[in-house]
Amino acid sequence: PAPVLAVVGRPNVGKSTLINRILGRREAVVEDVPGVTRDRVSYPAEWNGRPFTLVDTGGWDIDVRGMASRIADQAEIAVDMADAAIFVVDARTGVTSTDEHVVRMLRRAARPVVLAVNKVDDERGELQAAEFWSLGLGEPHTVSAMHGRGVADLLDTVLEVL
Ligand code: GDP
Ligand code: MG
Q1: Ligand 1 near 45 CB (within 6 A)
Q2: So what family is this one in (predicted)?
Q3: What span, in angstroms and rounded, lies between the C-alpha atoms of 151 and 13?
Q4: Which range of residues forms the domain containing residue 49?
């Protein structure tokens, strides 16, 4: 079977947009409001002739109090079933406490993780991405899921660990 790649992160960071970019078609639902992806949804994908299964995560109903743990729970199930994960964060918000919560879960799961700093739509965003080194997940890979910027480099890195 094809290896499984989970895409995790807070609502609204651009996970579904990134998945559509990788798939080359609009299949994952993208919304301006957080919490649209209801369940974990799998998509067959391919990069450089290598097949893999992409798993979108992160919708459900958000209640502010329980948000961090719910995100981590969903991400945890997806990561447990996956061979590797892309952890998507948002360059525009910077590091949040929820991001740090997800990092702790990812550490426990002990899967290879590639860090994608999304919404870096142009050169100017590159500098902001440096703060994500503090998550301790290695190099922050800057991407714009919306425009495709950096996504090929990200996938090359992901396939090295998948
Ligand atoms: P998800 O909740 O993590 O799946 O996030 P979505 O993919 O649904 O995207 C949430 C919002 O962020 C939508 O309004 C997207 O259009 C927007 N978005 C996603 N990727 C980018 C990006 O690279 N740049 C910008 N500027 N906006 C983005
Ligand atoms: Mg989504």
Answers
A1: no
A2: Belongs to the TRAFAC class TrmE-Era-EngA-EngB-Septin-like GTPase superfamily. EngA (Der) GTPase family.
A3: 15
A4: 4-161
User: pTM here?
Assistant: 0.91
* Three-class SS state of 145: coil
ipTM of the complex: 0.99
Distance 58 CA to ligand 2 centre (A): 6
Residue ranges at the known binding site for GTP: 9-16, 56-60, 118-121
Distance CA 36, CA 42 (A): 15
Structural tokens at position 105: 């879960």
Structure tokens at 18: 């990134």
Cβ-contact 15, 27 below 8 angstroms: no
Q: Judge contact between 40 and 5, C-beta under 8 A.
A: no
CA geometry: angle 96, 10, 44, nearest 5 deg: 145
CATH of the domain at 94: 3.40.50.300
- 143 Cα nearest atom in ligand 1: 23
Give the residues of the chain that fall short of pLDDT 50: 36, 59-62
Report pLDDT digits (tens) over 114-135: 999 999 999 988 988 999 999 9
Q: Considering only CA atoms, which of 123, 114, 127, 128 is closest in space to residue 147? A: 123
